Amino acid sequence: MENSTAGVIEPAARTLHDPGTAADIAAQVAGLYGPDAERMAPCLALGTFERVGSNWLSDSLRPVMPQHNEPFRQQLGREHPLSPRNRVPVDLGGAALSALGRHHLACALSDLYGSPRHLVKETNLFFATDTVLQLLPDSPIVVLTRAPIGIASSFERGGLWERWAYGQRYAQVAASARSPRWREFAPLVPLDDPAAPVALGRLIALNALLLAGAVAGAGRDVTVVSYERHVSDRPAVLAGLARSLGVTLPSDAQTVPSQRDAVDATFATNQSKDELIAEVDPTTADLVKSNVAATMARASRFLEPHVTATAAEWLAGDDLYEVRKPVAPRRKPARSLSPARPLPAPMYRSMTPGVSWRDVLVTNAEMAELLTLLHAAGLPNTQQGTNLLVCPMPHERGGRLHFDRPAQRWRVSPSYETHPAFWVTWIGAATAAAWLGARLPTRDEAIEATAGAPVYNCDYVMGDTCPVVEPGSSAGEVHHLVGNLQIWCGDGPALTAAEPAQRHLFGAAWNTPGTGEAIEAVRSRYLLGSSRGVGVRPVRDARTTAATALGAWELAHLLNGWLDVLDGPARPCGELDRLLSFALTGS
After folding, report:
1. If DSSP codes are grouped into helix, strand and coil, which group holds residue 220?
2. Would you say 529 and 69 are in contact if contact means Cβ atoms under 8 Å apart?
3. Mean pLDDT across the stretch 213-242?
4. Contact at 8 Å (CB) between 463 and 264?
5. In angstroms, rounded to a whole number, what is the distance separating the alpha carbons of residues 192 and 252?
6. What whole-number distance in Å separates Cα of residue 356 and Cα of residue 441?
7. Local confidence band at 97 (pLDDT 50, 70, 90 cut-offs)
8. Are 485 and 491 in contact (CB under 8 A)?
9. Nearest to 364 by CA among 385, 393, 384, 388
10. Are 487 and 534 in contact (CB under 8 A)?
11. Across the chain, what does the average pLDDT equal?
């Protein structure tokens, strides 16, 4: 871990932009916590680019800091003003946000505050960086850095440029740089249809420069964590980071993560490196490095010297790598993705007095059917970039549910129909339960029902979800009672009437630990939050049966009625959330 020369990057003579209402929204949320707001503000971990060790940081701090993975970059639709994928410059004033968008942003920001302090990880914010910092003015900042050649190696080994559609990303960033607000940055990303290594070098430099400028404008303390340093001396970096953040890590946090290979390692983060090797073609490496240097040189003509100097310091370290020609990747045994077989009709099994649990988690196929019916009934999932029921991530980023615009229906990634649905908001989970004539379990019910249950598929053993039918389980059992995904609960922590409502999460997922302590840890999220580790497990009791199921038209009418309330006179977020919760659950 390294600190910037003076501990605080001096404010720039020229700040990049003041988006107008960002400060007002930040003040509104911070006002919920009064004098505790600064202590409860999250730590922001901001990367100079992707593949800078952010997953390692998250996994290391998970035991002591609740995690939020890229809520601005991943969980906002392309049309949202705050989405880094939006070609339109950030503007939170006027009608830039819908009523749902304003409500979501206030709730999302509130969700990031807490005690113990939360960790918010973001990479590649590009032109949204300074606005995000203004939305969280009291947050300490950790900047994650990596030498460009290391990033290029990771991109080449994983085929990430093509897999994550970075050609389109370059075009989007170049278009944003030509807007009136950012046009001075246009020379850094020319519209010349560059080769991938050229474009990658430009993007790495641009994001680092924008981050350095935004941090300088915010005038805050910055802790810099170098990828190269954490590979060479992980215990020292962790110890320094813990001191900087004022947290105490468990003793086993100093140990090197498991080297166990996941069956599917696409999203696994349990691997560790102990040497700096760049497996990248020398020509590619030279193109990336030369275009980083050229971009930095162009930027020095109009940015403050300390901004370009800071970005250059963050991008140093190419000389620390041993460059090797890439070799054919070692293929791990792939998970079987044969065409999904139809599942038998789900059943409900008595687990605790008066409560029956559905034997399988809600599947992607079921969620796609419900989303299609709701869309036909006049309730689109995404409204001006704000997702109501599910977050439709690209398949390459772990998404399995996708809206087919020409066909006006939702589809599932092939062979994932019988996998459990994730990236589902609490609103989506409660809506699915009502549609199925069920409800979501309370946290206490979940603890009671899962006592002593075995855990199946957790801690990256498979590297992804598996089908909802658990191998070896009989027809009379509840499959994945613990494991595969965590679940949304129907209840949440007691909060004030003004605070946005939250609902508990429970259990273990493919990407979380499966220890008893981790399974029963108290954690919660706001109603519009979602992640790739949380799904839906309906339960039934005397008040919720097949006869009480609501149709898609009824549910669409109910949810649209709530959206109309959002458009009405201003009300506290908590009051609005509780109106919706009562409408969906009766409690």
Report:
1. coil
2. no
3. 91
4. yes
5. 50
6. 10
7. confident
8. no
9. 393
10. yes
11. 88
Q: How confident is the model at residue 196 (pLDDT cuts 50, 70, 90)?
A: very high
The closest of 421, 386, 381, 385 to 404, measured between CA atoms, is: 381
Summarize the confidence of residues 443-449 as an average pLDDT: 97
Question: What pLDDT is recorded for position 323?
Answer: 92
Dihedral sign, CA of 175, 178, 179, 183? positive
- Which residues have a Cβ under 8 Å from the Cβ of 331 and sit 6 or more positions away? none
Distance CA 507, CA 455 (A): 9
Find the mean pLDDT for residues 180-193: 94
Which pLDDT band, with edges at 50, 70 and 90, does 70 fall under?
Answer: confident
Is residue 306 within 8 A of residue 216, CB to CB? The reply is yes
* Token digits of residue 577: 């959330």
Please state the separation of Cα 250 from the chain's center in Å: 25
Q: What's the first-to-final CA gap in the chain, in angstroms?
A: 48
In 3D space, the residue among 429, 383, 60, 38 whose CA is nearest the CA of residue 249 turns out to be: 60
Which tokens go with 538?
């309906």
Whether 20 shows a pLDDT value over 80: the answer reads no
Residue in the block written with tokens 């994730």: 422
The pTM is what?
0.88
Q: How many CB atoms lie within 10 A of CB 114?
A: 17
